[in-house]
Write a structure and sequence with these properties.
The chain has about 350 residues and is an all-alpha fold. It has helices at about 1-45, 50-60, 65-70, 100-120, 130-140, 145-160, 165-170, 170-180, 185-200, 210-215, 220-230, 240-250, 260-265, 270-290, 315-320. The radius of gyration is 54 Å and the shape is globular.
Length: about 350
Amino acid sequence: MTTKKTAAGKTTAEKPAKKAAAKTTTPARKTAASKTAASKTGATKAPGTKTAAAKKATATKPTKTAKTATKKPAAKKPAAKKAPAKKASAPKPPGFAKRESRAAMVERAHAINEVLAETYPYAHPELDFEDPFQLLVATVLSAQTTDLRVNQTTPALFAKYPTPEDMAAAVPEELEELIRPTGFFRAKGRSLLGLSAALRDDFDGEVPATVDALVKLPGVGRKTAFVVLGNAFGVPGITVDTHFGRLARRWKWTTSEDPVKVESDVAAIFEPSEWTMLSHRVIFHGRRMCHSRRPACGACPVAPLCPSYGEGETDPEKAEKLLKYEKGGMPGQRLKPPADFPGPPAPHLGG
């Protein structure tokens, strides 16, 4: 009985000792576990305490500078387009000053007139006529058409209506049909009937010889009046048609577009005795060489005196091909040209 108790007691005594050892061991384990956790936390959270592996990784990472160095080169900006080079102006011929006094301009204008007189000694009105009435009618018809077309139309017209009295009594439709080829035939027909009646009723069937009387006739303006006065009556006058006005501006005789002002400006440069023939020469030159769109500068005898030289074709061979009428080896505009005219006569209508 005593031994069992002792064994039992021993056993009982051993149990508390094991429990005490277990209690002692548990905190130790906890302490070891907490140390391990602390070490993990320190490895991940503690700032500035990098591991050797982390340091190695940091050393191998490319720096920003290296990234910049490996960037692709920036694309080149397209080069700015160069402004187109200005077209070089044609060289001015010798003898022309860009800035000139009025006295120099007047001197140059007279020199141009001399050149034109040598170039066109046969200059004349390019309308066929036999008396003042025919010239008056032909000039009215020449508006908005060529002198050639008028010259091809008037033979039949004057054959049927030779006098103002005859034309004033014409049947409008019959008159219009005869002048139809000249264009604007209804308006021109009214003008011819009106001026013919006025000549019959107010001037005894005669064409008046003054500007004031002529411009009162239907369809007659200053240009028409000066054509009639200068070529039918020998009264000096300047005829400002589209050719004369264009050339007067190119030669700097005037800057105006108004025919009356052009007439006044040019009249102040030349003596009245020159006015009529000057008009013929300038108009001849405008029709043959100094064209509106493409003047033949390279073939022009006025070139050394022209401020507008270079506006047209300056190559001599090319310019020669631009010449018209007798200067280009072609017929003139008159069916019955003067005896000294160097070119062949114009063909009849339909010829």
